[in-house]
Write a structure and sequence with these properties.
Layout (H helix, E strand, L loop, with lengths): L4 H16 L4 E4 L3 H7 L11 E4 L4 E6 H8 L6 E4 L6 H10 L8 E4 L5 H9 L5 E3 L5 H6 L3 H23 L7 H14 L3 E9 L19 E11 L2 E2 L2 E7 L4 H20 L6 H14 L11 E3 L6 E5 L12 E4 L2 E4 L3 E4 L2 E6 L2 E4 L8 E3 L2
Length: 369
């Protein structure tokens, strides 16, 4: 028999947040929000799927052809509809069951929901006051629990193994795509799937989102590997840099600056600190070294069910970091036509500071000597 206790616990926490925020109704589409709260991740297409939650009721609007599969993941009631009927009548019944016909309801909408789903819902309500999930589901998702920590830790330990295997396999003439395949094979052999993989040789590393190519490794060439897998529903993400041959002085200098920026951000990250101040700590180091214009992106992003989710560690972020937040710290310096260096850790914020998930050293990996 399926254990729905985790979903019940998260639903209870959501209702506490609804009380605290005077929220009458939370509406989630077929998204990571729905998956996190209910365990249901239905096939996403043009057929409206919604989970409606009030303080004393929760139920799904569910296409009839998806109901049997979704039933395996939840014991919440379904209001089903067939293609030849359309969703309107089933949605009306669901709103009545939720006592959501009252005017002026405070409604939280899933910001990732399809626009046509959201408008279908809003058109069926009477003058709702609407906002997104930042202070309800989003806030709860940002505070990782023990089960999420265990899943994230396992995914990152596997990532360590894959990245180490990739660096160990470096030899003259190997291609970026062949190295990426080594990483993917390691994931598959351990029951994980590839989330993304970017293997960058030489000048390719100056592009933060480079796609691995048939380019071949040559002697005295920098190597950047940014990769992540998904294991038991949760992803990993890490960037490590190395050198095939003997690193030159410029590369060593840039590498040292980026490592110093990582340390500065780690030292700044504490509960109650603004995310933008963590970004500033890393950025100030790189700017002081004369590379400020070559740090092309934010310092980090949250990570959980999604590979990118709040909180974002950026100069324009208003987020205040909390214990249990999981996010990346990944400053970088990118020199066009030459190389790029980015060092990335995923951390969980504890009361006394960040705990790093990876156990692989950030030291420069030297290969091919």
């Amino acid at each position: 028999m399926t254990d729905f206790s985790l979903s019940r616990s998260r639903l209870s926490k959501l209702r506490e947040r609804m009380d605290a925020t005077a929220t009458d109704l939370v509406v989630l589409g077929p998204s990571s929000h729905m998956s996190w709260l209910s365990g249901v991740h239905p096939h996403g297409d043009e057929r409206p799927v919604m989970l409606l939650v009030t303080r004393d009721h929760a139920a799904f609007l569910m296409p009839a052809l998806n109901a049997a599969a979704a039933r395996k993941s939840t014991d919440l009631p379904f209001h089903t509809w067939r293609d030849d009927e359309g969703p309107e009548a089933a949605l009306a019944d669901l709103l009545t069951a939720c006592d959501a016909r009252r005017p002026g309801l405070s409604v939280v909408l899933d910001e990732t929901m399809r626009t046509d789903f959201a408008l279908l819902l809003l058109d069926a309500l009477d003058r709702p006051e609407r906002r997104f999930t930042t202070d309800t589901v989003g806030l709860l998702r940002a505070r990782k629990d023990a089960a999420e920590y265990d899943a994230l830790k396992a995914a990152h330990l596997l990532n360590d193994t894959a990245v180490q295997a990739a660096f160990d396999a470096l030899h003259e003439g190997i291609t970026e795509q062949e190295v990426a395949q080594i990483i993917n094979d390691t994931y598959k052999a351990n029951g994980a799937t590839l989330e993304f993989c970017s293997v960058c040789f030489g000048p390719s590393a100056a592009f933060p989102h480079h796609t691995s190519t048939p380019a071949r490794l040559e002697r005295d060439m920098p190597v950047l590997i940014d990769t992540g897998c998904r294991l038991n529903g949760y992803p990993s993400d890490m960037t490590r840099c190395g050198y095939f041959g003997t690193p030159d002085q410029d590369y060593c200098e840039v590498f040292a600056v980026v490592e110093k920026a990582v340390q500065a951000a780690l030292n700044a990250a504490r509960p109650g600190v603004a995310a933008r101040d963590v970004d500033k700590a890393a950025r100030d180091v790189i700017t002081a070294a004369g590379y400020g214009e070559r740090f092309l992106h934010r310092t980090g992003h949250g990570l959980g069910v999604d590979i990118h989710e709040p909180p974002y560690i950026a100069s324009n972020s208003g987020a205040i970091l909390e214990e249990g937040n999981v996010f990346s710290i990944e400053p970088g310096i990118y020199l066009d036509g030459r190389f790029g260096v980015r060092l990335e850790e995923i951390v969980i914020l504890r009361a006394d500071g960040p705990e790093i998930f990876s156990e692989m050293s950030r030291e420069m990996v030297i290969a091919g000597r």
